[in-house]
Amino acid sequence: MRVITLVEDSLSEEQKNTGLNTEHGLSFFIETEKQSFLFDVGMSDLYRKNAEKMGIDVTKAEFLVLSHGHYDHGGGLNDFFENTKEDVPVYLRREGFGDYFSHRKTGLKYIGLEQELKEKYRERLVYTEDLYRINDEVSIFSVNRDSESYKDNLPAANTVLKKLSGDGEYAGDDFLHEQNLVVESNGKLILMSACSHCGIVNILEQFESIYGRRPDVVIGGLHLTNPQTFECEPEDRLDRLSEYFLQGNARYYIGHCTGDVAFLYLKRKLGERIEKLSTGIIIEI
Q1: Which of 173, 43, 171, 160 lies closest to 102 in space, CA to CA?
Q2: pLDDT of residue 229
Q3: pLDDT score at 38
Q4: In angstroms, rounded to a whole number, what is the distance separating the alpha carbons of residues 278 and 256?
Q5: What span, in angstroms and rounded, lies between the C-alpha atoms of 173 and 52?
């Protein structure tokens, strides 16, 4: 199995002469022995352009899983629809096309998906449930919000993210639109959590309640840095998170909204068990 990073915020020194470009977002092309598909499409058509430079034809993806309804993960959705066959589905939560905003210094900025796509391509949209199995290798799940510790494990950076309710009021985003991807391949369980807005500990606990054990590999972003102030989660929280990660045997490939300071802190604690994501990175599992 291969997980190919088509879009990520950063580019490593080794990749700077490859012609690949970066943007604030995530997109992965996943290949198993049975199938190939996409997890997120970044904020533009860059996912496809980078794929072409890497010799990958993303138009042959059998489906797309969209992690949540933010532009930096679904901004390339229109490009995906225009460049794939009419029977290629997109799996997302029903709340994925909600009105989502980020609180900036200049006011609220819309960060949701292109609303017109909901009707234009409605026959290609497959709305998922809390636990949804696409096939014998690929499943999607959302987090149970009823646990006593759920709120304690939420990232502080979530506070700048809002949603517009039906009565026209802005409230804190509850991230009902977020879902996580699980791939079962050759006896391995791979968890992909693009932003972990619901809290990576909550996500891992939900995973364990479903599969009876921790994943072998975790890939994605942890949302440990405020996107406006670049302020990182406090060290005591990073310490608790490191200790939680060390309880299992998973390898971590982390980037995007995690933030460099938070990643380096986790790296000091986890050592070789954690690696940084960057555009062009190929993870062989």
Answers
A1: 160
A2: 82
A3: 98
A4: 8
A5: 35
> CB within 8 A of 261, min separation 6: which ones?
225, 232
In order of 24, 95, 223, 273, the CA distances from 256 in angstroms are: 7, 23, 8, 18
Sheet holding 107-110, edge to edge: 107-110, 100-104, 161-164, 170-172
Q: pTM for the complete prediction?
A: 0.97
Distance CA 96, CA 114 (A): 11
Q: Could you tell me the two tokens for 118?
A: 């909901």
- 50: closest CA among 21, 78, 12? 21
Which pair of structure tokens corresponds to residue 250?
A: 């998973």
Q: How far is CA 178 from CA 68, 175, 278, in A?
A: 4, 5, 22
Q: Block means of pLDDT (10 residues each) for the chain, length 285 residues?
A: 97 89 97 97 98 96 98 98 96 97 90 98 97 98 90 93 89 96 96 97 97 98 89 94 95 96 97 97 96
Between strands 251-255 and 274-276, the pairing is: parallel
29: left (phi over 0), alpha (psi -120 to 50) or beta: beta
Q: Are 177 and 187 in contact (CB under 8 A)?
A: no
For position 149, what pLDDT does the model report? 87
- Rounded to whole angstroms, the Cα distance separating 184 from 191 reads 9
Q: How many CB atoms lie within 10 A of CB 193?
A: 27
Reference 279, options 256, 245, 261, 259; nearest CA is 256
Q: Please, are residues 78 and 117 in contact by the beta-carbon 8 Å criterion? A: yes
pLDDT for 106: 85
